[in-house]
Amino acid sequence: MAILDKLMSKLKSDPDFKGMGDEQNQAIVDALMAMIFSDAKLDPVEAQEFDRQIRLLPWRWAQDERAREKVIAAAREKVDALADPAAAQAFAQTLAQRLPAQPVREKVYKMCLAIAFADRQTQAGESRMLLLVEKAFGIDEARANALSAEVKRG
């Protein structure tokens, strides 16, 4: 899946993502997993590709199969609870708490946008999750629109 290749390449090469701790890395995985599952149209191939890409990350736990599976399972468990609006809002807030730097937040938000736009149509669940992340990350409407335009331009 080309969109995931692009996202994972960003995680590997962007200096803002280097030196992050395990909790911050988990927050990024959680955010991306939430977007992948939020459209209620998860393709099994998409899920397998996401797992494959996670294995390629330079993070310490990405190379340890047991640790990697634990991170992915933790993300999936959180995502499973997102049907409840209160849980989804709390989830977005925990992402913001674990990603305190605004440049990182905006890059993660752009990665979420890229996932939402990957199939050329944004589903209702994706829109809800994007709005929650946008608010939790302190991204105002004008900035969100600018970031969205950047992602759409490629």
How would you summarize what this structure contains?
The chain has helices at 2-13, 22-38, 44-55, 65-80, 85-98, 102-117, 124-136, 141-153. The protein is mainly alpha-helical. The longest helix has 17 residues, at 22-38.
State the main characteristics.
mainly alpha, 0% strand
Question: How are the secondary structure elements laid out?
Answer:
Blueprint: H1 2-13, H2 22-38, H3 44-55, H4 65-80, H5 85-98, H6 102-117, H7 124-136, H8 141-153
Helix pairs in contact: 2-4, 2-5, 2-6, 2-7, 5-7, 6-7, 6-8
Describe this structure in words.
This protein is mainly α. Helices cover 73% and strands 0% of the residues. The chain has 8 helices and no strands. The protein is globular.
What ranges have pLDDT less than 50 throughout 5 or more consecutive residues? none
Distance between the termini: 15 Å
Q: What is the general shape?
A: globular
Helix/strand-derived category reads mainly alpha
Give the integer mean of the pLDDT values. 84
